[in-house]
Amino acid sequence: MNVFVTGGAGYIGSVCVEQLLNIGHNVTVFDNLTEGHRSAVDPRAQFVQGDLQDRPVIAQALKTAQAEAVLHFAANALVGESMTNPGKYFRNNVSGGLNLLDSALEAGVRKFVFSSTCATYGVPERMPMTEDLAQKPVNPYGESKLMFERILSWYHQLHRLEFVAFRYFNAAGASGQFGEHHRIETHLIPNVLQVVQGKKSHCEIFGTDYPTPDGTCIRDYIHIIDLAQAHIQALDPGKVGFFNLGNGDGYSVKEVIQTCEKITGKAIPVIAKPRRPGDPPKLVAAAVKARAELGWNPQYPKLEDIVRTAWAWHQAHPEGYPD
Ligand code: UFG
């Protein structure tokens, strides 16, 4: 298929592009490079530097690509920033997404795959989390993703657009070639590995008084290649709906740090800090629907394997991407 990937220079997008190319799809990456890196774009893909606020540029790029499917990764995704600059999140994630969606319809695209998030649930009312839980986001980031989910539902009903929206849990790990390099790093695993690399003196633990067995937050970590595989399966005709993407296993912040110590063989100094605003204590996916309906079968469910691949990438790219 001719697949048009927004945000294909970003962390999750770059690995998905690589996996799509590996199985023979044609890929065009559309990215404004504010978050992404040019060198994270697989050289086998076409690249268009463009912004989702610019409809004529999107339309031209879709036409040139002869796009049959769109995978929409491009977004702002920092919970904390969304609390101080909500307009940025609604503008880029909702209005930018709508520009893309309308352009895709005009270009005759029949399949639209969207990167949503477990942050659309807010503080979940049940654990593990199934897709039918109430969605009550507690930050503008989650709200912006939920708004776009609703738009997709209506476009499916009214324009018969086939869509799949994936609610990611905690994406982590790396492929051999592509990994996690955010210019501002807020995520746990890369931050811990930066301590091992000597770039930071210690790791901060945000909150040690949560109602969890060791007092730190619990998350469901999922390997980036498994995430990519789900997107590939979503391209099959007839697949539609909302799917959680997680492994169904929860690990605490302390357990993640211990796993990093085990994999790297280095002791990691930690400092306990106050809770980070907007962090729910525990987020773990039920992770059943995607397996049953998409035939998704994660290959790297173990946290050790996830950390091992992340560590290999950080060792091979100590400064991340050059651009
Ligand atoms: N944490 C630390 N120290 C750090 C970094 C993180 O203790 O240096 C903690 C966080 O407080 C949290 C856990 O580690 O409890 C995981 O934090 P991440 O930032 O790695 O991931 P989040 O769970 O906050 O965020 C992820 C995605 C978001 C998504 C969110 C849904 O990155 O895009 O899950 O809740 F919105």
Walk me through this protein's architecture:
The protein is of the alpha/beta class. It folds into 2 domains: 196 residues, NAD(P)-binding Rossmann-like Domain (Rossmann fold, 3-Layer(aba) Sandwich), CATH 3.40.50; 87 residues, UDP-galactose 4-epimerase, domain 1. Helices cover 38% and strands 18% of the residues. It has 10 helices and 14 strands. The strands form 4 sheets. The protein has a 7-stranded parallel beta sheet, sandwiched between helices. A 3-stranded mixed beta sheet has the order 12-9-14. α4 packs parallel to α5, α6 crosses α10 and α8 packs across α10. It starts with a strand and ends in a 7-residue tail after the last helix. The mean pLDDT is 97. It binds uridine-5'-diphosphate-4-deoxy-4-fluoro-alpha-D-galactose. The site of uridine-5'-diphosphate-4-deoxy-4-fluoro-alpha-D-galactose (UFG) has 21 residues, from α6 and β8.
Distance between the termini: 29 Å
> Fraction of residues in helices?
25-40%
Number of DSSP-assigned strands: 14
CATH architecture descriptor text of the largest domain? 3-Layer(aba) Sandwich
Domain count, please report it. Answer: 2
CATH superfamily of the largest domain: NAD(P)-binding Rossmann-like Domain
User: Strand fraction band?
Assistant: 15-25%
Under CATH at level 1, the class of the largest domain stands as Alpha Beta
- Helix/strand structural class: alpha/beta
Bound small molecules, which ones?
uridine-5'-diphosphate-4-deoxy-4-fluoro-alpha-D-galactose
The gist of it:
This protein is α/β, with parallel strands linked by helices. It is 38% helix and 18% strand.
